[in-house]
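> run fold NADPH-dependent FMN reductase-like domain-containing protein
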Amino acid sequence: MSGATAPEIEGVRVVRRAALAATAVDVLEADGYLLGTPANLGYMSGALKHFFDQVYYPCLDGTRGRPFGYYVHGGSDTTGAVRGIESVTTGLGWQRAAPAVNATGEPGKADLEACWELGATLAAGLMDD
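> ok
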């Protein structure tokens, strides 16, 4: 996410919210979304699932077409978490702004760089012209 606050990014205000603290109002007020989750027991975290449960219907019509990105980290498999996020965001009509970052095992330098790039790409797409 630190890429979203890089010095080159201008005119973009980054607001961080933990999944359990984020509300439908937060989602409606944002121009884009960067999601992150561990893969727990073959699925996205309970906190991210709860977030989606709380915001899905209140935000369904008001956020279509907005850009998003996400990263998932799991010990050995992230397939279920990725499938869940893709399913929900497709239903919301959000548009992926950059390739997802999918890391397994101990995160390495390349994984961290990919996360930085994800944040920077999403934020750059939101910059004022």
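The chain has four helices and five strands.
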